[in-house]
Design brief:
D-Maltodextrin-Binding Protein, domain 2; 14 helices; disordered N terminus; alpha/beta; ten-stranded mixed sheet
Length: 354
């Protein structure tokens, strides 16, 4: 009897041992599965972005890219000059994969310093209009930024406005406000005017602008818009999204947009955009990120988050932007904004445009 009990007990112990072994193998299999999934996730890697575009405008899109692809986006934000200096100083040990800028002049400068390389992407080449990409694929526009005339609805009749050059006429003496010439947005505008009219004509325009100033130049487009609203001046030139931001605070702001140069070459349209850094350590992921940013979903969010215009055609704009109506944009390749930047700065300095 005792032997039978011992045998039953032994069988129970053996069964328990087998059960524990099975559980262990199952747990081990699960652990191996989890490890494989984690390894696969890690293999998707990362992409490093040096961005002159502000964090709150890019981070939601980067998060969406990571969610869609599994590729982690690490980024830093700063003004373009320090970012380009850091890229240039680390060519023997490249840190960044993507340089993102808020102006074609900065992108041109990066390319001109041989800090970028061609993306070689059919998606980018086909979706981004040719006037908003570097001819060799060094950089691409991601959103459009129209820089045009704004005016007081209380003191200016819209039919009295026509073009950038018209603001140099005597009728606007003591009525014009401008942002500083130190800002790249104005350097790009003047650079494009040089491409259209030549340096002698643009110098005359700039002299007229300076003669017509109602106040010293402003440090920002926002302050300029507020100056028009307060009565300090009647007209000015700004990037349209700054007016969108102000209208979001006060829908009754007495300032409206006039689309410049509709009877000639069209409104100056700049871009925010990006390019692949030369010898980028995560090049494939960098290309994937730029291709994602020109997708329909990303384009709507990229432009809509800041009252800008999508660079890809037929993407709906923000309702605030839609109220401004359609306009003819300048089709001159935006790369000329960078190529003529030095000439623009020289002319503005010569006429005393600070």
């Amino acid at each position: 009897m005792g032997i039978q009990v011992q045998s039953v007990f032994g069988r129970k112990i053996k069964g328990l041992a087998l059960a524990l072994m099975a559980m262990g193998l199952s747990a081990c299999g699960q652990s191996n599965s989890d490890a494989k999934e984690a390894s696969a996730e890690a293999d998707k890697g990362e992409v490093v972005v040096f961005s002159a575009r502000k964090q709150h405008l890019i981070e939601p899109l980067f998060n969406e890219f990571t969610k869609e692809t599994g590729i982690k986006v690490n980024f830093i934000t700063d003004s373009p000059q320090p970012l380009l200096a850091r890229i240039g100083a680390s060519q023997d040990r490249v840190e960044a994969d993507v340089f993102m800028a808020v102006d074609a002049g900065s992108l041109w400068s990066a390319s001109n310093q041989a800090l970028l390389e061609p993306a070689n992407s059919e998606i980018l080449n086909s979706r981004v209009p040719t006037e908003f990409q570097e001819p060799n694929g060094m950089w691409y526009g991601l959103s459009k930024r129209a820089r045009t005339i704004v005016y007081s609805t209380e003191r200016v009749k819209p039919e009295s406005l026509s073009s950038y050059e018209q603001l140099a006429d005597a009728e606007w003496k003591g009525r014009l406000c401008l942002r500083t010439s130190q800002k790249v947005y104005n350097q790009s505008l003047v650079g494009m005017l040089i491409e259209e009219y030549g340096e002698p004509k643009v110098k005359e325009i700039l002299e007229g602008w300076v003669d017509n100033l109602a106040a010293p130049v402003f440090s920002s487009d926002t302050l300029l818009i507020q100056a028009i609203a307060s009565g300090m001046c009647d007209v000015g030139i700004v990037n349209t999204y700054y007016l969108g931001q102000e209208l979001a605070k006060n829908a009754d702001l007495p300032v409206k947009i006039h689309w410049a140069n509709q009877e000639s070459n069209g409104v100056h349209v700049n871009i925010s955009g990006a390019g692949i850094v030369k010898n980028a350590p995560h090049r494939d992921n960098a290309v994937k990120l730029l291709e994602f940013l020109v997708s329909d979903t990303a384009q709507k969010q990229f432009a809509g988050s800041n009252y800008e215009y999508p660079v890809v055609e037929n993407i709906p704009v923000d309702p605030v932007v839609a109220k401004w109506g359609e306009f003819k944009g300048d089709k001159t390749p935006i790369a000329y904004a960078g190529e003529n930047q030095a000439k623009a700065i020289m002319l503005m300095d010569q006429v005393g445009y600070q």
